[in-house]
Amino acid sequence: MSISVEGITIPDSKLARAVTQMVRDTASELLFNHSSRVYYFGALAGQQKGLKFDPELLYTGAMFHDMGLTHQHSSEHERFEVDGANAARDFLKSHGIAQIDIDTVWTAIALHTTPGIPQHMHPVVALVTAGVEMDVLGLTYKQYSDAEREAVVKAFPRTPHFKEDIIQAFYDGIKHKPDTTFGNVKADVLADKDPHFHRGNFCSVIRNSAWKA
Fold first, then answer.
1. 171 in a structural domain
2. What is the CATH number of the domain that holds 150?
3. Which of 14, 32, 51, 75 has minimal CB crowding within 10 Å?
4. What are 53-66's pLDDT values in tens digits?
5. Range of the structural domain that residue 21 is part of
6. Predicted model pTM
7. In a domain, 196, yes or no
8. Distances from the Cα of 92 to the Cαs of 65, 97, 111, in angstroms?
9. Is residue 212 predicted with pLDDT exceeding 90?
10. Is 51 left (phi over 0), alpha (psi -120 to 50) or beta?
């Protein structure tokens, strides 16, 4: 489903249609709708800031950003963000997309849970994170009009308990590889859901390293 919000639409292209089908066939409805909202909120943020971006690349980054949480694309040892980035990379390669564009999408997905960096990078990198931060954290909620928010959510509904549902989805996708949460926000998810989880400590790693001093 594609709607127009302030002129923002899902690209009407072969690649975008393939992205939609791939994610719809792989991810849950929760993640599919969340990823779709990420695209719209990210694109609207780009429009607000006057950024020039390729809608196809932004759409791919938004739609694949949580693919690492799915069983089909979850590795044993990589961060889920890297798993999603690798899935997008392989998908784009199979569609003959230029390496420079593949690298941009890969970076956008890999960094989408790393605050403070994406906004200084390529617009696609910045806007995937902007969309995620809006839909999950509501950090820029007031920068969107009521009409914009309502249109996006009507087309791609949030579940009645979306906040808890998305936390659970994160947990389900990463609980088998807790070491990949060291130094990133997903450690908060494990700490919230698993009373036996012990968060890695950066200072302890330094003090216990092989160096004598």
1. no
2. 1.10.3210.10
3. 14
4. 999 999 999 999 99
5. 14-158
6. 0.94
7. no
8. 14, 5, 18
9. no
10. beta
